[in-house]
Amino acid sequence: MLYLPNHNKVSIEMEEGLKEKTGKTLDEWKALLAPKGFAKHGEIMAFLKGDCGLTHGYANFIALKFREADAASHSEEDLLSAQYKGKESLLPIFDKLRDEILKLGSDIEVAPKKAAVSFRRKRQFALVQPSTKTRIDLGLKFNNRPHSGRLETSGPFGTMCTHRVQLTSPEQIDQQVLQWLKDAYDEAG
Description:
Strand order of the largest sheet: 1-2-3-4-6-5
Radius of gyration: 19 Å
Strand content: 5-15%
Shape: elongated
Structural class: alpha+beta
Number of strands: 6
Number of helices: 7
Order of helices and strands: HHHHHHEEEEEEH
């Protein structure tokens, strides 16, 4: 069983404040957009910002929800199940990482995406991605730390993380990895 606490606060807060900030509920915005026949995200954005006077943030939120293209439109359970489909043997690694990360503090936001799970404070500090059928990549974001040994360049994460640790078993989540997680968490505060 995949368990992830629901921390999709930003999406929930935006939807709850939508009527107050924009004058319409999400359902009302969707009803307004439905007959327009927009095919692309950019077309929806242009209409919402130009014709309706919405800020970029609210226009983007409404456009994503209308198209149901964002991770917030899918349950966390579904996102995780899709990530680990055919890679179920990696779940013990994910479970241990998640549990250790959540021990770092009560201010951690867990944000599942289509391909990875992001862990954030004021900024993202860790990203967990099942990269192959036999390996999870743990992305870490540091302010200024050299790459060395197991603490590699960010690899597939690009600028989302500064470093990567490749993990093929839960036992590899040792004191060194736990210290790197704590350091990344501390720097993100």
